[in-house]
Amino acid sequence: MEESALRREDKKVVAVVGAGLVGALNACFFAKRGFEVEVFETREDIRKAKVVKGRSINLALSHRGRTALKHVGMEDKQIVSKGIPMNARMIHSLSGKQSPIPYGKKGQYILSVDRANLNKELLTAAETYPNTKLNFDHKLQDWSAETGLMTFARPHGSKTQTQADLIVGCDGAFSAVRKQFLRRSRFNYSQTYIPHGYMELTMRPRNGEFAMKPNYLHIWPRNTFMMIALPNLDKTFTCTLFMPFEEFEKISTGDEVIEFFQKYFPDAIPLIGAATLRRDYFRLPAQAMVSVKCSPYHIGDKCVLMGDAAHAVVPFYGQGMNAGFEDCIVFDEIMNQFNEDFSAVLPEYSRVRVPDDHAIADLAMYNYVEKNRKIKSFVHFFLKLLDALINSFHPSANIDQVFQVTFTRTRYHVAVERWHWQDKVINRGLLLGAVGAAAGGFYLLI
Ligand code: FAD
């Protein structure tokens, strides 16, 4: 077993485990503060790899994520210029009618960004700091909460051990860092797989142009199914089909794929192409989606979890990465507050961040359940109408949940509380209205 001593010039060593989106960004935050930063990633360097395996091809980047990128000077040049603004959602009805629903206020938009490109840019940015070292092909196997000693598996069966003052677990939903937390007392953990899976399909350009209007997040809501499409710089769209696994499994031939699309997404067939659909549907199996909640996020002054390692959320609010990026800002703010004293910063981080990450996990799950309600009842429709009315009469109150989550840094749990308050007001209003109407009717009757 080869051993490497990381301590240089008496600077504290921060080991970031996982060089995905959150890990790579976090490395920049710690490097900016002057720590010796060592990043350990199980995969090879994706900037050199021929094929980059992973989840969704593109993602929606919104205010929280952009603010975090700005903190490390990366928002505009590298990321925003390579993103495609989506000013509104475009709802595709079964008949093929398209109706836009704008986001927030006029001029507000979210960005469609390429996941692989964003990750590569973040790695390159981290590497520009002389106090950062990226170690690829290092898979964390075990670590000690007492000493900070970590053991990594290397290709060809060898192992390496290294030690750090702080271990930052950014190793995703199935975190190896988190395993150590599970062995300890008073650590809360829950994970839920939803019955839906997702599959990505590509809509190629038509005559060199986007096949649909590019500045929209296209949505085909179909009760228990849903398809969305986000634009890419190469003028393709990545369509993501969300559907219960049992429905995916019912389709086993090309003809059945076309039959299914004809029934639910007829306008998408000529756009994706029947032959492409027949082929691409069977290229990869549908992927699972998991929601992970845990607390606390730290062990003593040695280790902290961020990003999906702390809170994997289902993707129906487009907030997983945005929340992970915001984790980095919140931690940074607390580092300022407590003068970089890990023994004070880590517990404070758990105290502040757990309620917010749990709130966005719940909200994303609520959105998932809501999107899959079979019958949109009249009462439900009426409540939504009242929501919209209150927001248009009282925009300064900022009570629109989507607006607060997507376009502000209002703490997630506060956004949820305000939204519950608004619901309560509407329900009471409805109740009062109904009682008033009943009393009036009774009076007239008499
Ligand atoms: P990951 O991206 O999972 O990165 C973890 C890294 O750790 C990986 O590089 C992995 O190789 C490495 N690793 C794992 N184990 C080890 C180990 N033992 N040792 C060393 N390294 C290890 N979020 C949004 O904000 N907007 C969206 O529009 C959006 N869309 C989504 C669509 C889908 C279909 C899905 C599934 C998710 C979506 N998300 C979205 C969520 C987003 O993908 C995640 O929140 C984000 O990737 C989390 O980043 P992360 O760095 O924490 O984890």
From TrEMBL:
Alphabetically ordered keywords of this record: FAD, Flavoprotein, Membrane, Mitochondrion, Mitochondrion outer membrane, Monooxygenase, NADP, Oxidoreductase, Pyridine nucleotide biosynthesis, Transmembrane, Transmembrane helix
Annotated GO MF terms: FAD binding; kynurenine 3-monooxygenase activity
Major site of localization recorded for this protein: mitochondrion
TM region positions: 12-31
Pathway noted in the entry: Cofactor biosynthesis; NAD(+) biosynthesis; quinolinate from L-kynurenine: step 1/3
Catalytic activity: L-kynurenine + NADPH + O2 + H(+) = 3-hydroxy-L-kynurenine + NADP(+) + H2O
Pfam families: FAD_binding_3
UniProt domain FAD-binding: residue ranges: 14-328
InterPro entries: FAD-bd, FAD/NAD-bd_sf, Kynurenine_monooxygenase
Function (record text): Catalyzes the hydroxylation of L-kynurenine (L-Kyn) to form 3-hydroxy-L-kynurenine (L-3OHKyn). Required for synthesis of quinolinic acid, a neurotoxic NMDA receptor antagonist and potential endogenous inhibitor of NMDA receptor signaling in axonal targeting, synaptogenesis and apoptosis during brain development. Quinolinic acid may also affect NMDA receptor signaling in pancreatic beta cells, osteoblasts, myocardial cells, and the gastrointestinal tract.
Family: Belongs to the aromatic-ring hydroxylase family. KMO subfamily.
Listed name of the protein: Kynurenine 3-monooxygenase
This protein's encoding gene: KMO
